[in-house]
Design brief:
mainly alpha; two-stranded antiparallel ribbon
Length: 260
């Protein structure tokens, strides 16, 4: 089959505009395996099968299996990247607080926006021959500086060559989880302080209109007032300190909501 005949070399990581997996996929399209035992696998997974590398389970191979040939060694950086990404995907908090993802090749970024509070998104009744209201899409006033985060993984070959891949993967996923935590922290920072364009999220104080209650104490009524401020949007995610979360979960209204 095609995946058995691919020639793997390090230059596949340096093709402009393509990841290593995309290069493999272009050479060995997954659509060619429909109706076969390999349906559902991608080109990288088929290369892992080609070299008989067991990534997990009781028969998990050691790290040195990747380096048994020059071509199988080419797969190791992609294996590390995929395993780190698996750790990053362990929590879906970030996906719940961002609107979209944009891939760019630059150190800074300029976004676009409209002003829904000015009614720019609302459709209007338009009479025959009348002017149709417009929605203006603007670019932000300031560039958004992007953070660059990194962590170098350093280990001697002697230290890891005999380690089982499923054990090695635990460390890689921990690194991914730490990266994910940093990204969530960055996203929360933008919510609180804005992205440099004078656009932080609105803040409210308990006990100060429109939030009822007593300052320093979170009540169910205050939470309802806060929920109402999101109209016409839906409040579906809350990021709070552990102490606040446990306080909410202990409330009768959250434990037995069907009883009021």
């Amino acid at each position: 089959m095609a995946f058995d005949n691919l020639h793997l070399e390090k230059g596949m990581y340096r093709q402009t505009g393509k990841s290593f997996s995309q290069v493999l996929e272009s050479l060995d399209p997954s659509e060619n395996y429909r109706g076969t035992a390999l349906e559902g696998s991608d080109a990288f997974q088929r290369q892992i099968k080609r070299f008989g590398i067991r990534l997990s389970g009781p028969g998990s191979d050691s790290v040195e299996k990747f380096f048994s040939t020059l071509e199988s060694a080419v797969l190791f950086p992609e294996y590390v990247a995929r395993t780190v990404r698996a750790g990053m995907e362990g929590s879906d908090v970030l996906d719940k607080i961002i609107a979209t993802r944009t891939m760019i090749d630059a150190m800074d970024y300029r976004s676009i926006y409209t002003d829904p509070e000015a009614g720019e998104l609302e459709p209007a009744n338009v009479g025959e021959g009348a002017r149709i209201p417009t929605t203006q899409i603007r670019s932000k006033d300031h560039l958004i500086n992007l953070n660059k985060r990194g962590r170098m993984l350093v280990a001697s070959y002697e230290a890891i060559r005999f380690q089982k891949l499923d054990l090695f993967a635990v460390t890689l996923r921990q690194i991914g989880a730490a990266i994910r935590k940093s990204l969530v922290s960055d996203a929360i920072g933008v919510l609180l302080d804005g992205d440099g364009n004078g656009n932080p999220a609105a803040s409210y104080a308990i006990g100060t209109s429109p939030i009822s209650g007593t300052a320093g104490s979170l009540s169910y009524e205050a939470l309802c007032d806060f929920w109402a401020r999101f109209d016409p949007y839906e409040l579906d995610t809350m990021i709070v300190p552990t102490s606040v979360a446990t306080g909410l979960l202990k409330r009768r209204s959250f434990r037995t909501p069907w009883r009021g």
